[in-house]
Design goal:
8-stranded parallel β-sheet, about 60% strand
Length: about 190
Amino acid sequence: SVGGSTFSNITGVSAGTNIINSAAQNLTVTSCNSTGGAVKFVVADVNTTGTVGLTVTNNTVNGGGVLLRGLDCAIRNTPNFLGLISGNNITGCQGEGIQMSVRGTSNARLRFTGNRTLGNQFNTGVNIFDVSGTPSIGAIFTNNTSDRFILTQTVGTFRVEQLGQFNGASGNAGILAVSGTVVDVAAGSLGIP
């Protein structure tokens, strides 16, 4: 866990984990400030049969036009991944503010609440996509603000609670770009805490 830290112009990754084989791990990054840097603020690269939890809460990231991404997560062949991303302010990154790729046989459950991802390159704050294999993605978006939310389904299953109310009852603000078959499911149906 990393909490209450300040990072300035870090040339690598400020907080990260690489989880492989059968390892189970929880990574929590909370109440940190990051300015500039060369790579990414938080990286989670997971390829394990173990259970993985990622909690990223109340962080402020100002990429200063040089940091690649605020949060970058690659989920591969991980049967139980839970990502709880809330209250983060991510701006000024060269790429997306938040990017998550899901592949293989992964089952990713994701909750995004109250995040602000504005002013990142390509006007893309949040980019969630599947890559290969037969992954399953379940997501909830509530009260987030972004230039653009990109949700892409190419090979697996991608479900979003109240997708039809994304910029309505779910309280999100920003352009929603959906590609492939992203399925709208009822609130509470995905069992994400």
